[in-house]
Amino acid sequence: MMKKSQAGFSYLEIMMVLLIIGLLLSISVASYTNLHANSLDQRRKTDIQEIRSSLEQYRSVNGAYPTPNLTPGLPFGTSGLTDGTNTYMQSIPQDPEYPNKQYHYSVADDDYTLSGQLTKPEDTVCQVPAGSDLCGEDGSNYNCNYCMGS
What we know:
Layout: H1 11-62, E1 81-82, E2 87-89, E3 104-108, E4 111-116, E5 146-149
Antiparallel strand pairs: 1-2, 3-4, 4-5
């Protein structure tokens, strides 16, 4: 009597394993994408809050907010917010997706608005139409959906 050895897997078993691996992989990719978008938006919110804090310190010393210039984005550049005597912020943060997206700053009377574009629209704080004074003045024409002011 000879025994026939049955080594290996059937086609059906291999297909089931591949199906399970594919399902787990698709769930993990979707979770990573969502986590990445949340991370970028949280960084934008934190950056804008830090810039806002520095602008308030600037105003408390100088009596007014810095005047925006004609270039898009933040008028005080990336090297820092200073009035020549005091430094209020060592370096100005850029949007995580710079140069495709930028933070914007505008001043009207004794008020200012800092704005940016969040990835997830459900986190919208303000809605600014494309091409307005707050966003898109550089021709990018995207909507800012997160704003903070004085």
